[in-house]
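Incident review: delayed structure delivery

Summary: a single-chain prediction request sat in the queue longer than the usual turnaround. Root cause was a stuck worker, restarted by the on-call engineer. No data loss occurred. The affected request and its eventual output are reproduced below so the record is complete for anyone auditing the incident later.

Affected input:
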Amino acid sequence: MSSWLGTLKRRSTRRRRRPLSPVPGLAPYSAPSGMRGLLFRAQAVLGGGAATATIFIFLFLITITTVLLMLPMASASGEITPLADALFTAVSAICVTGLTVVNMATHWSPFGHLVVFLGLQIGGIGVMTLATILAVIASKRLGLSVRKMMAGDVDPSRLHDREGQDSHGMRLSEVKGLLKTVFISVLVIELALAAVIVPRLIVWGLDPLTALWQGGYLAASAFTNTGFVPLVDGLSPFATDPIMVFTIGIGVFLGSIGFPVIYAIARAFKTARLRRLRKTLDHARLGIHAKLTLTTTTILLVVGSLAIGALEWDNERTLGSQSGAYRPMTALFVSMMSRSGGFSTLDTSEMSGATLLVLDMLMFVGGGSASTAGGIKVTTLAILFLAAFAEARGNQDIVAYERRIPSDTVRLAVSVVLWGASIVAISTITILRITDAPLERVLFDVISAFATCGLSAGLTSNDLPDSAKYVLSATMLLGRVGTVTLATALSGTHRQTVYRRAKERPIVG
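Output delivered after worker restart:
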């Protein structure tokens, strides 16, 4: 028996060592070349490190944009833009923040404006989303690894949670539909916004060609939540223009809820139409992510506008300078812009300290996940409130819309808030040491940078020291990359242990 097993083992060993002969009629494998080969090799190198890849691609794009903005042909004066100013503008464009240290309308040449425009479009669509689209174009297919890369960019929690992948907010089967949604929504929404904005600019006094360029720029800046304004006077001349105000506000709102929510709404409408035609038995429904995003966004929008209106109603330097009919509209617009839009029809630096604190809280929350907005995201806030509500009622499970939210999602939400608060605290302390500006202004602009909002209380200007500009640039990058993606990239892989420690409860509260 032993001799028979030894013979079988030797035969199996010889069989494994035997070199594989080529299959007749099948050409030998060769790595793809060109763009397809470049993406193939990048995917092979970065592989499971999608979070790390996102950070490095952001840094690469920021470097390229900075170099282009430093060229003499990028400035209106023909001079070289200082490194600190070019880097700050590049980070603000790629991270779709909207903070500026130069006059965006007069400092840049047409070439410079084009560089900024391309930067905010790339940043708004999403770096990994754009890379996925390029991979699909190059390879003519949407493979499993590309789907994982895209899903990981939309939902970074997938990068360290390998179990229960079907329970995530973004499934691999939905990636193709999401890509179509990104492409169609960017094209359709920006064209629709431009179709309304361009005629208003012509009526205001611009020639058709200038109105077409600046209207398209404003439309892209609104949907990507960047907040850059190419007009010399900004949006102040349109403060009482309902068409312009609501058009930009709708663009910012659609960009802030996120592409997954837009995709979920479009899929629900499609399912409802097919059900009316008796072509499907499925019911039109929104997932818990879309419901939490829309509900929390609406609540914050309404509460924020009421608070801003109440605090600034008699301030003659802000809302008080407008007639009573326009004040509610402006308060609603400011509340929407504080979510990450960055546009302003009022001088934010003239607002009271109480109003700035309200805006600080709204900016820190930001918009929806996988959107053009920043902040800790509205779903993070919703999950924390649901956890506190469940604890207050003594419920073991956290439930929303008849669905149970797993405990690891709560831990992730707490981690996101702590990361965001730590970044804001460190940046605020650093800039306070660099400048002599008051705390409320420094804190406001730091939160605006972290949340990629773009509103300013007067700190960001050309007089700001270069070291403070670098600190704010780093804050914008950390805010746009995302606290979840950053934490995942730094932590590497998810650790799993085969044992558990003894339990002992500390005193809390």
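Verification: Strands lie at 398-400, 403-405.
Action items: add queue-age alerting; document worker restart procedure.
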